[in-house]
Every structure is written in C-alpha cells, then in structure tokens.
Amino acid sequence: MKLPKNVTIKEVGPRDGLQNEKHQVPTEGKVSWIDSLSVTGLSYIEVSSFVHPKWIPQLADAANVLKQIKREQGLTYAALVPNLKGLDGALEAGVDEVSVFMSASEAHNRSNINKSIDATYPVLEEVVREAKLAGKTVRGYVSTVISCPYEGYIAPEKVRVVSERLFEMGIDELSLGETIGVAVPTQVEQLLENLLPHFDAGSLAMHFHDTRGTALANIVKSLEMGITTFDSALGGLGGCPYAKGASGNVATEDLLYMLHEMGIETGVDLDAVLKSAQLIEKTLCKPLRSRQMEILRGEGKECLS
Amino acid sequence: MKLPKNVTIKEVGPRDGLQNEKHQVPTEGKVSWIDSLSVTGLSYIEVSSFVHPKWIPQLADAANVLKQIKREQGLTYAALVPNLKGLDGALEAGVDEVSVFMSASEAHNRSNINKSIDATYPVLEEVVREAKLAGKTVRGYVSTVISCPYEGYIAPEKVRVVSERLFEMGIDELSLGETIGVAVPTQVEQLLENLLPHFDAGSLAMHFHDTRGTALANIVKSLEMGITTFDSALGGLGGCPYAKGASGNVATEDLLYMLHEMGIETGVDLDAVLKSAQLIEKTLCKPLRSRQMEILRGEGKECLS
Known about the structure:
Two copies of one chain form a homodimer.
Chain A: E1 8-11, H1 13-17, H2 27-38, E2 44-49, H3 62-68, E3 76-80, H4 84-92, E4 97-103, H5 106-113, H6 117-133, E5 137-143, E6 147-148, E7 152-153, H7 156-169, E8 173-178, H8 185-195, E9 204-208, H9 215-224, E10 229-232, H10 252-261, H11 270-284, H12 291-296
Parallel strand pairs in A: 1-10, 2-3, 3-4, 4-5, 5-8, 8-9, 9-10
Antiparallel strand pairs in A: 6-7
Helix pairs in contact in A: 2-3, 2-11, 6-7, 7-8, 8-9
GO molecular function (chains A, B): hydroxymethylglutaryl-CoA lyase activity; metal ion binding
Keywords (chains A, B): Lyase, Metal-binding
Pfam families (chains A, B): HMGL-like
C-alpha cells in the first residue's frame, strides 16, 4: 500500500458538527470546547460560520467565539463566510482563514445558497479577492461531490468545473465534500482520477460524512491516491437535527485511531481528543456516536470469546 | 481498482451474532429468523454451535433449530462443532457443513478452547476426518488473526502455521477471524501478503468484527487482494453481553450496501435482509446498530444542508 507518512486533520466539529445540533450550546461552552481542541496537537480548527443567524441560529455567536477562544500558536482558526458581510464579521473577529462554499449540484446549490451555480461564482470571487487583500488564506468547499439528495449521482466533470473556477479565484485549498455520506471507494477513486490530472493532490482535502459507514474505507482509498488532508468532526457530530443515528461527519477520533494504527502521523494526541470529546458530550447532553467514545463509555468493549 | 465481480456473503448472525446475547431467544424465534434469512438470496447461513450448553447457553437448542428450519434448496446450513460429540449432534440434526475452530494465539486458544494449540490439532483432525467420512464439507476458523486480547499483535507467520495444519487436515475453506475488531487495512494487507503465496484466495474467507469501525475498509483491502468470501452478521450482532456499542461482526446489510454500490454482485436482496433484521430486532428487544437499520428507523436520515 502506498501511503503518505503524514496526514493533516482539519477539525470541523465546532462548525459542521454543531450547525445542526438542536441543543443551543452557549458561547462559553463552545469556547471551552475549542480551547480543549487547541491543545490536542490539531493544526486547524473550523470554529464557526458567519452566515446569517437566521439560517444557522446555533452559530449566531461566531464573532464572540472567535474573540474569546485562547489561540494556540501555529494553529489556524477558520470560519465559513458566505459573502462580503460575513467576511467583514470574520475579519473583524480576527479569523485566520476563511472558507467559501458552494455545491457541485445545481439543485443542492439552489437549495443551500438560494442561487444558481453561475450566480454564486461572482459572490465567492468577491469574497476570495477581499480576503486575499486582507492577507488571509482561503479555503473552498464544494459539496455533494459524489451524490446529491436531489439530483442523485454527480458526474466528476461537474465537480471539476466548479473546482477549477474556485482555484481560478485564488483559493489555497479545496475541500471536496461528500455531503450525504453515501459514497463507496470506487466512486471516490473515479472522482479523484478525474480531478488529480488537473489539481495538485496537496491542494485537495476530502470531507466525508459517514451515513453508510463507508467513510473510513473512502479515506483509505483517498490516501492511496495521494490525498493528505481530511476533514473530520469530533464524535462524528454533524447529523441531522432529528437524527439519532450516525449521519454526521467521520469522527475525528475514529479516523485518528485508523491512521495511527496504519503508521501515519497526524501530530494529534488521541487521548487529548477523547478528553475534548467528553467535554462536548457533556455540553450536548447526548452520547457521541464514535467507536472510540463507545469504547471509552464501556459500550464497545472487546469480546474475548 | 481491481475488484471481483461476485462475492459470497456467509451469514454468521444466528451463531456468532447470537452467542453473546443475554436475552435468551426461544427456538421458534431463531427458526423464524433463519427462515426469513433463507429467502434473502444468501447461499450460506451458520445456524448454531454444538459446543457444550454450559459454555454457550444461548445456543443449547442447536439440534432443534437445525431440525425445525425450513431448508431452501442450494443453501448451506452450517454449524460449529468443537469435538466428535458435537459432530455427532450436528450430523444427527442434518447439518450441511461443519466448522472447526481454533486460535492463532496460544493464549486465546487456551482461554477459549482450554487447550494449547498443539493439543487442539488432534481433536480437530478427528472431527475433520469423521465429517469428511460422513460426506460433509468442513470449514476451518482461525481466530485472532491480527490481534489477540492477551498477546496483542499476532505475526502473520503464526496464522500461516495454523492455517497450513487445518488445510492438511482437509478443510475446504478457511475463515480468518479478526476477532476483536481492531485491525486496519495495512495489517490486513500484511497478513494476506503472507498467506496468499501459500493458499488459494478462493479457499479463504475474511471474518471481521467492527469494534473500531474499520471493518468495511478492511474488506475493501481484502477485495483488492482477491478475497471473494466474507462473513458478516445481520445488524452487526456479536458484541459482548454487556456492550451496548458496536463491537460485533460487520453488519451484513452495511456490507451489502457497500458491495452493491461498488458494482459487486452478491445475489442477496438487501431489502429482504432488512426485513429479516427487523424480525430479529423485535425478538431481541433492542435496536440493531447497523447504519442501514438506523436509516430504516429514521435515525440516520441524510442531512440536506
């Protein structure tokens, strides 16, 4: 197996993980959680989103969160921004990196951003330009890169077109979002085979949700194809508001377990991550659904017979 | 990706899945569950175990289960047998195939079978010989092929030695058990790289537990290395008696989802399998922990945002 020696984990729990949580987490709860994440060895935390509070009430305190967290040196604290207004708020709050986002699926883009794909480009272009002028790095997100809840299977060509436009705008990294968590390794391979001739593997990140339990298998395939950056969320957070099941992001702690056992270094301390997961578990008043957390709670004990 | 076109799924839920369940399932509950499994397109079901009831009270009714199920033509109904006494019972009950079992780890073998590895060989040899004389095919199980709860990492060489002895006895297929569910794809690759020069890939099956959520990733690696037979248990059954978490076998329905999405045929109808899972869920009075069952219960709904 040809595998990278080092992998970068980008923790998206405080944003992608929390955004659908019904239980409103108070600002100080988010801040102490992010502070506990900051001492795990992570080099990147997506702390919040500067979308209009009407859309994501849970993250309405983005500016306060960014201002109150204790910054670790060398750690990038990022936030999502949908437009110039969001960018202004993020810059004012002292964000290190901003993320712009859109979808590879026309229907999902319209449903999520309320604009066509073509009408989204100029908005993001403006944000990327202004962010760059402010000296910030910019991450692009493309969602529904393999399947869309409305359109079904998304051809890799559609993902390539949107990705090219984002790189032309000047983004520094592109995160490819398997938003609904239905992908299998053959599809990941097909997508990356289409993208890698056009983009440097080092400028791409994979962002898997785990609805069907295939996220780790998809990550292994991505690793074999040269991808070295993965998004994940502590505790597998990120499911639907009404979903008890495991439809969230791939769990950071389960990903760390696998990578470390495979001899791949992440610089992240799994024990420290589990402590941080216990903290947010308490705050959210619900058991986190990762395998590592189940084992920690004594629910997933190894069977000796 | 080089993948097989067809894969055989061997359902071990009624044996490996149930054996640690606290809730005693009445014989008729097992029989109607197995009957529902028989019409899913599965070609192999491990229905019970003829070990002494003292060790696994849940499976004390093995003979009655075998006698009462409605046999589908072409379907192999198998059972575990530890010794000649167990074999007699299994043959008398009309088993199609018997499985003998031992461990690649000395400590696990002693704990599980109460004998050293060397003292186990003659017992199994006798069983294989008599089963063959009775015209039955024999499956061999080697457990703890990657890690042992007592000895830790198990060198592939140890697995090879035990496997060779079992094939010399005349077993028709060998199932390699990753008993405690901690393996990662690099370890699976290392194991198979060591075994495949000695054994035909078609005579090997992989048996993964999913404690760390890595089973599907391990199966993909096994597929890429030419393995075409996999053991799984409906609903991911097979955890510890006191474990609420997902430490059981890889779930048949999650495996089927992935294989089918990868374009690999199994001959098994996922919808029929889910109906069978709902039946045993009712009988066990607890929600099964597979992703497909979570989705069916509306817990794992895809998130559209």
